[in-house]
Structures are given as structure tokens and as C-alpha cells.
Amino acid sequence: MTRSTSVRFILLLLVLTGIGFRCLSQDTVTIQVHLDQPKGPMTPIWAWFGYDEPNYTYMKDGQKLLTEISQLSKVPVYVRTHSLLVTGDGEAALKWGSTNAYTEDKNGNPVYDWTITDRIFDTYIKRGMKPLAQIGFMPQALSVKPEPYRHHWQPDHPYDEIFTGWAYPPKDYKKFAALVYAWVQHCVARYGKKEVESWYWELWNEPNIGYWKGTTEEYIKLYDYTADAVKRALPTARIGGPEVTGPNWKDAADFLKAFLDHVVNGTNYVTGKTGSPLDLISFHAKGAPTLVNGVVQMNMGTQLRDIDKGFEIVASYPTLKHLPIIIGESDPEGCAACSEKYHPENAYRNGTMYSSYTAASFARKYELAAARGVNLAGAVTWAFEFEDQPWFAGFRDLATNGVDKPVLNVFRMFGKMQGNRVAVSGALAYDFIKIKDSSVRGPQPDINALATKDARTAAVMVWNYHDNNSPAPATPVSITIQGITANKVRLQQYRIDAAHSNAYEAWKQMGSPRQPTPEQITTLEKTGQLQVTSDPETLPVNNGAAVVRLQLPRQAVALFQLSW
User: Is 416:429 a contact under the CB 8 Å cutoff?
Assistant: First the structure.
């Protein structure tokens, strides 16, 4: 065997055994952060959360998680939840909730009861949070099809089972408007005019699918009655909609356009004048994970195409383009309560894949909004917690049994990023256009960064993401941070990976106990917090630049905080 043949043989052996792949994949990814090139404010679009089950709000683990969410940042966090007007006794269940806000006496007269809605909003206000107050769904006494009403859905049941009497139009639009008027008036009396002015109100959820059993025109009619009632109760209140599903679906795009056409040029059902009040525009955006040969494969491109299409539609209305857009649900897929047990494609939820996906996708939302020239105010993460469920059952939630999951720590990282977003460059494998068009399916992962700068601080979030949740070696990353106006900086690094900020890995190392001991729970609570990798260090600055280096595992996220 010749020497060259021997070399080729050894290289082939290394590749076949995986050693060669690990060596060849160790090329350093270089990223440049330009602190002197601002790109716009770091609007806290991430500080928005939502969930289906309103009665979890004031339960034990719900209150604990809301406290933690409220502490993520210096800005108020907005919360959106379904079923605030649904008839029932307040029992919590999967994809179900009720407040009994509206019933009728034997003569058909309205009976308002704000006990449970107050309990929900009180929980938010006490923590400095703000409602994105969803007006819906239909009280049983007002529904044109009141039976069946209460459902008992479970994750192994068909999804359509949830669409019962609460999803139908009202039999009396004026009675529904009177309910809305009374509710807003009550909130002003209870919380004060200034507080309620800082909220957002919206009508319904996903009216282009089963959540609304009426027509598009009937939704528009209900919107006119609802918006009129809100504005009569508080003229300075902010109201909007229509919270359709992803606008890249044709039916959702058609619904959104019909709604916006009416707002601009339609005849108002209540006033008879042209147009309707509109203070925000909302739609949803979801990814589409699948299982490929037993491996979870995400599809971030599907979610970004939903977002971009929604932005494109809004931008086509010159008189509406300036309005705040709220992506009312913005997630890797559609059903938070569809657990991993029955939906194995959702197995990304407990670990760091959910974290890296969240970091990479939120960074691209800023870029999509800038490219379309629209005003993105918020992107609601539709994930909360599910009371009394098995540990790490694979729901799309932020915590399990009071223990935080890795994804919540991405939002803690976002909360540490202040000031303006700044430019990031480098020979990077992906940008927002490439991911929108084809997701992250190439041989290289998406290793990129989001960076901010304030007066005397900066922050750089960097991630290592790929759609395929397959094992892969860590990648060396070198980040040059330029535009520092000091001779040295103090550096603190936070990390989300298998060894940091990861209660799920800690739970597995305990043997995945079905009922952890009190001592184990204490350990899990501690490991579920955002963790630093080491003590703070001082970095030299040469010609206005500092360099940080790290080995970044696949599906990991790191945050570098600098101060001077």
C-alpha cells in the first residue's frame, strides 16, 4: 500500500467512524458584532405569553410561574388567555376554562358575575402584568347553538371535539355588546382608567377555523358591535383583531383581508358610517415539526412564512401599516396541550431544542418586520403550564409541576438585552430570508447572534440551531465585539445546554422519577434557573474591539453581557 493510499484509507476510516466528521466540522464560526451600527430599538416583542386554560392562572403552579414571568424584564409582560366569557363553574381542564361571567335569569335578563374574571386579572395586575384581554368565547345563554357546550377533550382525542356551543355567534348581538360594555366599565371601576388604557382588547381566536362557527361577515358584524361597546365604555381603550391562523394559509389570508377591507372601507354594522375602530392587528404563526426516522425535525420556515405573509398583507394597507401588530400565537407548532405521548413529533419541548428554536426564530421576527416596514409590537408565546400532569410530559409549557424548563431561560436572556439592536455580520450559513424560504435543513447549523447596546452595556445572544434534533459535535465560535468605548469590559456568560439551566437533564440524571422527593424538587428548581458558566471576567479592548470564544453545543444558547 502506497503512502498516499494509506492516508486516504485512514481518512475514510475516520469519516466512517465519525471521528473524521467531528474533526472536519470544527471550523470556527466567526461573528462580528457592530455596537456602533444601531438597527432600531430592542422592542420587547418576546414579553408576551398566552394559554388556553384561564383557570390555571390563579392555581398554585400558575401563580408561581406568572411571578417568574413577571420578573423576566423591566417592561410589563402581556398575557393572553382564552375562554374569559365561557359559561361554567371555573373547573380547569385541558383546552377548557370558564368564568360564568354571563348568565340569564328566567325572564332572559342578563346576569353578570365578574368573580372569576376579576380573580384572573387581579393575578396579573398584582404582578405588574397587563392583559391582552380576549373577548370570547360565547356564553351559553347567548349562543345560537348552546348544546353541546362543555367538552372533555384529551390529547388522544380528535381536535375538533373542542368546538362546541361556545364557538357560535350570538343570538342577540346587542346583548353581547351590552356584556362587553359592562365588562370594560367594570374593569375601569376596579383597576382605574389609566391602567385599563394600557391594556389591549381583542375579539375571539382563529375565527377562520373551528373556533368560530359563523361566517366571515358574522365575525365582522360581531367585531363592529364589540369595538363600539369597548369604545363607549372607555374611548381611549385599544381594540383589535382578527387573530386568524397563519396568513400563509389562503383561508386565513382571505379572512384577514376581508376584515381589513371592512375596517377601511366597509359600512359599520352599528354606526352605519364607513370603517371600524382598529388599534392593533393580530394573526398567528406556527411551525410544523415532523418525525423523520425517529428524529424530530422542526420547520421554522413554515412559521416565518406565516409571519412574513401577515406583514405583507398589513403593509399593503397604507392607512393601517403603522398600527401595532401582535402575533397572537407564535410557536413551533399548533397545539400546546397535544402531549409528546400521543404526538411524538413534539418531543422537542422538554429539552434545549425548544430553547435554540426560540432564540433563532425571535431574532428573525425583528428582521422580517424591518424588511416589510411594519410595527411589530409583540409575539405571544403560547405556552404556560398544566396543573397536576406528569413530570416532563411533553406539553408545550414553560414549567412542569413548578419547575422551569430550559425554554423559559431564553426569555430570561431576552430580559437582559436592553437598548438598541445592533448589526451582526460574518460568513454565516443562514439569514432570515434563507430560513424563511427553506428552513434550516443544510449540512451546517444556524449559528448566529442577536446583539444590543445601551449606554454602558451590551449583550450578545448566540445560538447553535438545526431543524434536525440529531446528535452533533459542539462548534467553536469566535465573536468580535466592535465599537466599545472603553479600555476593558466586564464579561458575564450565561448558558442553556445539557449542563446549564436545564432541569430536564437533571431530572433524567435522577432516573426520571415519577414523584421526585422534596430534596430532588429543590435541586430541580435550582437547575431550572438561568445559570452562569463561570465567575465574571475582565476582557481587554484593543482598538475598540473585544473577542470572546466558546465551544457551543448543538441546540445550545449563550448570552454574553458586557459592561464598562
Answer: no
